[in-house]
Every structure is written in C-alpha cells, then in structure tokens.
Amino acid sequence: xxxxxxxxxxxxxxxxxxxxxxxxxxxxxxxxxxxxxxxxxxxxxxxxxxxxxxxxxxxxxxxxxxxxxxxxxxxxxxxxxxxxxxxxxxxxxxxxxxxxxxxxxxxxxxxxxxxxxxxxxxxxxxxxxxxxxxxxxxxxxxxxxxxxxxxxxxxxxxxxxxxxxxxxxxxxxxxxxxxxxxxxxxxxxxxxxxxxxxxxxxxxxxxxxxxxxxxxxxxxxxxxxxxxxxxxxxxxxxxxxxxxxxxxxxxxxxxxxxxxxxxxxxxxxxxxxxxxxxxxxxxxxxxxxxxxxxxxxxxxxxxx
Length: 304
What we know:
This protein has about 300 residues and is of the alpha/beta class. The protein contains eleven helices and 13 strands. It folds into three domains: about 5-85, Arc Repressor Mutant, subunit A (Orthogonal Bundle); about 90-160 and about 265-295, Periplasmic binding protein-like II (D-Maltodextrin-Binding Protein, domain 2); about 165-260, D-Maltodextrin-Binding Protein, domain 2, CATH 3.40.190.290. Strand 1 and strand 2 (about 55) form a beta hairpin. Helix 1 (about 5-15) packs across helix 3 and helix 6 packs across helix 11.
C-alpha cells in the first residue's frame, strides 16, 4: 500500500465521490478510479460499493479510514511541533549554571522564559564554571552560565551584564541599620569570605588591601549561598552578588549596597557550532534582558 493510494482513498472518503476526490487532488477521475481499484486489489477486499453514479464505503473502508485519520492527525501534530520548535515554542533545553545563580536568578529567568512557551521543557543543574564549560563544549548541555574569564575551547561566549556585589549583614549587627556600606566599614569586622582560589576573592582582597582594610576572616567557603547562610547565623558579614543575596534578604540578614561598586563578570556559553540552537539563543536573550532589568534601581535588585 503506497502513500499515494492512502491519500486518494482518504480524499474519496472526505469528498464522498470519485469526482470530488479528483477535483480535490487535481487529478483525472479515471486516474483516481484506477488507484482505488489497485488499492482494493492489494488489500483483497472492496472499499466501495458502486450504486449508479454513487459510491458507498464498505464497513472495511470505514474501519480503514478511522486508522488513516489517526495517522494524519499524528502527522499534523508533528508538523505543528516542527513549527513550534522553529518559533522556540517547543523543545527541550539543558541548562548548567553556577550554584550562586541557581537559587534565584536563573530560576526566575527560566520561569519567565517558560511562561510563554508551555510546550518547552527544561533540565537544570548547578556546578562549577570549569565543569559547565567542559560539559557544554561536549554538548551535554545546550547552554551554560559561567563566571569569566573562561578559557575552554569549543564554546561560544556571550557576556552578560556584571552582577554587582552587596554586603550581607546579620540583622543583629550594628552596620545592618546603615543604608549604604563602605568597604572601609569592614575594617576589623568578622567576615565570611569566598575561598581564596576564586577570582572574585582575589578581587575582594585587592580592593580591601587597597583601602587599608583588614577584616577578621573567620570562615571561608567556595559557596556564596553558604556564605549567606553563615551570615544569617550571625557568624559574620559576607560579600556576594546581589542575585545570590536576594532570597536571603530579611531572613536573619540585611542586604546593603556598597559605596565602592564592583561585581562579577558572567557569560552565557554555547557549544561551538555555526550557531546556537534557536531555543538556547532565545533563553540567553531572555536571561540578559532579565539581568539588565533586575539590576535597574527600584526593580528586583536588593541593593537598591
């Protein structure tokens, strides 16, 4: 049974006549009749009963038509999915992100992205920048959000707006009542800082030493989220990106902007190819717009 025979059979069932089917498919009436006859010969049973100039479907034809329609509906569904993928309305997206961004920033951006794409599904996992770059370069993830600089080959890099750092202060601390914190205020203060091997820690140490500030570092951790938890426990003040501090504000800590602004440089990365997938590229654009919007004064930035 050929696809052409199935198409003509369906056309006859829809139109109710050989003539109608011929007009629908822009064919001659004898051509349609011959194809139906060949199909009946192949199947070994009649599909239509001829009564004068009319044809009446047999019980077998009605049963076959129901199955054919199921197949056509499936084909139409595949066609719709194909169109949705092209318009970023369907598909699957695999995202790798830094732990510091996994608590609030990326979930918020992804929620906004998925709200207009109900047929899109996502898988998200947090890990270090090095791991993200490795897995994206080998195409195990479609998109990654990493801390710059990154030197991994076989990836495309799209910079994001810098994430400003803020002071996360235990609510019981005397500095929690200030609206703005200077790094000079941290001289001699108990602090929780990121591990010394991180790029941001080098940046913090450089800025503090440049101002002659010597804090009392009581705990070090590679995780900005853990640093916020330690601050909430009253152990000391920490400095983290505002997107990490956002969900902790008011939960045992007060988040304050810094007089001496600095931040962490992030980027979205994709596997190296002619171009990123349309879905990954659309998410990156949404993420960039979300970061830019949330960083404006009076918006989602807890430092404002």
